[in-house]
Amino acid sequence: MIVRGFWGESDRRKAICDAIKMIADWRDKVGFYKFFDCHIQDDKNFHAWWPEKMYGHDKWGHFIQGVRAGEVDTDSLMTLSDEALESLQGQKMSAYQIYKHEWMMQNGSQRYKHTLCVDLTNMSMNMLRGKKRQVLQKIFHIGSTYYPESMWKIYLVNSPLIFRAIWAIIKPWLHPVTLSKIQIIGSAKEAIKKMNEEGIPIEAIPDWMGELVRVDSPASLTCGQEGNTQGCPPTTTSPRSSRGEEDSACCNSSEPSLIFPFS
């Protein structure tokens, strides 16, 4: 994933080598290889303050991750140290990598990316004031810097009028490759149509987008709760990167069986 993430750089060899060293140093700093040995302090609070949910897969096997901006508690997230934010967000991103790796092993197709769907309802400039801006910037930075090539597509749905001003602040935080994957869509109705046209079945579209017939994801990255990521990641081997993703549809794919290490 690192090689693919930096392949477009003008001096790709240097960029790839620098990225490998940077990511390796960061992993040592945050205790990457011990992420799943035990609870990280404040993990339950972190997942409650930044709730996410997995909704299913598109026809190629990319899982759909959903976040609602109005449910993100930036006031509480501000109480976490930078070190805690790095470890907790890193643990979550690593759990997603492991989930995708186990899905690949069961279904025989390379899938190391996933799709993100964000509900912008109730998002306001207040979320970007003072230290809150630094918190959000830190979380975005961890994903784009230390987990390159993780995103397939990003849908920003229900964008309010104020989002134009908010987007002007957030946009510089994101890598150009990430920006190219983002679609800003005004209404949930438009988003459902767009996502369905782009290979996401109705049952995998987040339920907050309307009255949909769905089947919840049978596997999750939580401690015993289906369908969301509020909890602890599975016990498994370290995630492996993949060289590429096939474009063949993954009909009748199965979910990986996850083992939850904590109670």
UniProtKB/TrEMBL annotation:
Regions of compositional bias (Polar residues) in chain numbering: 223-241
Pfam families: CRAL_TRIO
Cited SUPFAM superfamilies: CRAL/TRIO domain (SSF52087)
Domain CRAL-TRIO: 42-217
Location of region: Disordered: 223-263
Coiled-coil boundaries: none
InterPro entries: CRAL-TRIO_dom, CRAL-TRIO_dom_sf, PI/PC_transfer
PROSITE patterns according to UniProt: CRAL_TRIO
Protein name: CRAL-TRIO domain-containing protein
